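Lecture 7 notes: from sequence to structure.
We start with the chain below.
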Amino acid sequence: MFAETLKKVVDNVEGGIAAVVMGLDGISVDTYIKLADRVDVNTVAMEFSFILSQVRKAGESLAVGNLEELSVKAQRLLLVCRMISQQYFIAIVMAPEGNFGKARYLARMAQPSLVSQL
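Predicted structure tokens for the same chain:
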């Protein structure tokens, strides 16, 4: 269902490893993995789902608006998380040298397609 959209995103970003659509409850809806040996994508996304929900709550309490995107750069990966609804997000996992800007762009462009499939 979501796999075709996730595949397009990962395959079209330099350094793309995987992408997942996940709920803030940490339950994966769908995943596409291009390079399985790099990182456990579902575990990474599940752990960051908690962080996303905390950032979202902080934004609400500070009245700064809804959370749209969160990015994390670590030694072994680059992660771009974009909210696609109030409860679901797409997480794109890339190699540290991946194209961060293009991943953000592709996540934003994939959002309408992903929302229509929820």
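Points to note: The first strand starts at residue 16 and ends at 23. Helices lie at 3-11, 41-62, 100-117.
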